[in-house]
Amino acid sequence: VPYEAAHEWFTRSDHLIHEIRTLRRRLAKERARWVAQVPQVEPTLREPKLRIAVVSVCAYPPDHPLELKTLTPDNRLLYARRHGYALHVHRVHPMPDQGVHVQHAKLALMAEYLKSGLYDWVAWFDCDSIIMNMDRTLDSIIARYARPAWGQRDSSGVAAPPVAASPPTRSPPSHEALQPDAWPWKVSMTEDEVTRQLAPSEEIVAYVAHEGSCNTNVGCRSETRVQVRAGVRYRVSVSTALIDMQEASERLASVSVGGQDLGQCNPAPTSDYDCGFYECFSDKLVDATSAGWLLLEAWAVRTSDDCVCSLQRGECQSKLSGALVEAALAGNATEIATFGMFVKFTLAPVGAAFDGDISPPSTPPQTARALAHAQEPPGAVQQLAETGGEVLVHLAHEGSCNTNAGCRATARVAVDPRMAYVARVTTALVDMEDDSERLASVVVGGRELGECNPSPESDFTCSYFDCFQDEFIPVEATMSGYVSIEIHSVRTNNDCHCSAEWDTCYNRAEAALLEATGQGQAPPSHGLFARVVLTPVGSAGAGALADGGGAAAHANGTV
């Protein structure tokens, strides 16, 4: 209440709030008796014939510091689409010429929508309210609390939907009542308007939370969908508020981003009432789909609602601290509540996920290279496409190698016995984030090159990493006209879909998009996929073939 008005009305905001809280306590018992008499209704009930509209005014100035003008329309659109409701979000004053302040326009605006005859029910949401439970329908609220308007209850005591009425014949309201872009027979907000243009470097922060306790073995699950830049790779960090997590059983059982399961998070702090934040995952790479949205999901088990959190401010505190804040604000801390789960997701763009196009090449690479595959019988040989040319060989294992024994892939390729070669070994980053996930051994032409342990930022990168370059192949290995190659991978799951024909690997999201967009069948998933390129560096010569000294001199000169 402004100071001058408060002086004139002999009241203040804190006095009003105190009276409201007192009235609420007095009416609590009466309300409990009334609620006990209303019918039980499935919260996801949806009667398709019931015409419902959702209305909000988010007419904030362009320079207003609050993010509600962009956050709220997204939230409304997701909810309206989910349940098939009409949506009217007014980004400008809906009736500036009617002598009504924008803050008081809601009553006149709702009246116009109701008088239009287009809807059976019109639901008003303030712009500073966010719908957290996307599953609960307006139909279920109407069915439970507006029984006369909804219809008679059936034999089970559950309110029955109304009989469908004929469409109203009433004309729309006059043009003077609403601005043209907000007439009730025209949806005021299109998808293009709500899907705003994200800046190339814009960081996205979102919260997945559950109000109330999650202290059961089943726990509670929550999710939210955030807008991202299509075709962009994001570095994702996930932090959880330390809400009743002291015991090992009290944890986040699962966290996922865009369908990618990041695993569980079990901080085990020294107190159940810490309420600070703990970083569960950092620098996880996730690729946005072409749809431009990512689903964020979290699942908490055995966590009581021991912390008071604010979605608006993105912070949590103990109940004691929350009570002190509420007391200091004279009970006006209305945006905070107790939570059993409060998880923060931060998504920072790092570049194109797949260069804007993940479609495979129209034809295989046309090079003078030979291809060899681990799926072929042992000892299989692929002849050179061109004598003296560069040799490309893929060594792969379909399926998982996620054991300590791992899996091995071998190949025997034809080379020019007159030539010396240098080898370049590259591996697809298939489930190699942890140090234990690696190529344990690479052997080319009988020479042990060692292990390759890239440790990328994500198990699902699926791009290539250079393990070894310009490794000289001994003359003894080429003089027979063949070179044997063996690669041993351990603890690597089959998280990437790879094609030797296309010389490319895709993560699971990209592979699914390939099939969904009709660009072809995704290649099989591999736990090991490596490529070895043998490049001729010159004639070995008779002297070099005769003794190792000549070969060593040639090698030194080449390298």
Q: Number of helical runs?
A: 12
- Chain-averaged pLDDT: 75
Shape: elongated
Structural class: alpha+beta
Task: Return Rg in Å.
Answer: 32 Å
Percentage of residues in DSSP E strands? 25-35%
Count of beta strands:
24
Major sheet description? 6 strands, antiparallel
Query: How far apart are the first and last residues' alpha carbons, in Å?
Result: 81 Å
Unreliable spans are 148-195, 354-388, 540-559
Kindly state the percentage of residues in helix: 10-25%
Characterization of this structure:
- 21% of the residues lie in helices and 32% in strands.
- With 559 residues, it is α+β, with helices and mostly antiparallel strands.
- The strands form five sheets. Strands 4, 6, 9, 11, 12 and 13 form a six-stranded antiparallel beta sheet that branches. Strands 15, 17, 20, 22, 23 and 24 form a six-stranded antiparallel beta sheet that branches. The protein has a five-stranded mixed beta sheet with strand order 14-16-21-18-19, with no helix packed on it.
- The chain starts with a helix and ends with a helix.
- The C terminus is likely disordered.
Short description:
By secondary structure, the chain is of the alpha+beta class. It has helices at 3-9, 13-37, 68-83, 105-115, 138-145, 147-150, 191-194, 319-328, 475-478, 508-516, 541-546, 548-558, and strands at residues 52-57, 86-90, 121-124, 204-211, 220-227, 232-241, 251-257, 260-265, 277-287, 293-301, 307-310, 315-318, 336-352, 381-382, 391-398, 407-414, 419-428, 438-444, 447-452, 464-472, 482-490, 496-499, 504-507, 525-539.
